[in-house]
Amino acid sequence: MxxxxxxxxxxxxxxxxxxxxxxxxxxxQWSRDPQVVIFWxxxxxxxxxxxLDGIVAHDARGRRL
Length: 65
Description:
mainly beta; 3-stranded antiparallel beta sheet
């Protein structure tokens, strides 16, 4: 099972840090509310169960949310 979660807000990019490198999550809108974004990390980039040092969301202009 991939590492996943959700974010409420105008996220266009979500990244997590593991072992000093960034992994970019895949995003999907999965609700009637367009502000709800589901994200998951590809198991090829981030093995399931691997702890992340942080997860950060960015808007369309690259600003941290």
